[in-house]
Amino acid sequence: QVQLVESGGGLVQAGDSLRLSCAASGRTLTRYTMAWFRQAPGQEREFVAARTWGGSSTYYADSVKGRFTIPRANAKNTVDLQMNSLKPEDTDVYYCAADTRGGWSTGDYDYWGQGTQVTVSS
After folding, report:
1. Which alpha helices (H) appear in the chain, and where do they start and end?
2. Which end of the chain is more exposed for a tag (fewer CB within 10 A), N or C?
3. CB 83 within 8 A of CB 90
4. What is the mean pLDDT of the chain?
5. Residue of 108, 80, 113 lying closest to 2 (CA atoms)
6. How far apart are CA 94 and CA 64, in angstroms?
7. In DSSP terms, which residues pair with 30 in a beta bridge?
8. What CA–CA distance (Å, rounded) separates 4 from 55?
């Protein structure tokens, strides 16, 4: 089992930056892909970004490319999502996910956090 706990959400203004954190525990995660998804009410959960835990590969949705980054996991087993130049359309609940498969679909991930709300005002 892998436990994931997100933190760092909040209310910001358009153009601001925000950093989300995902604390992972339960297993050795060197073979896992860590991903961030987001979901608005009534809509499907969509892929935002992913990074292979032990490697340097990163993947980003076109909507966030150039604005969001996933730094390498730190010694505290935390994977962050750095969000810059935030827009009102980035307002969503953001979820951290983990799995050995990786991918762009929610079905590719077995482990999920509880989500953290990000609200961007115009």
Report:
1. none
2. N
3. yes
4. 93
5. 113
6. 13
7. none
8. 20
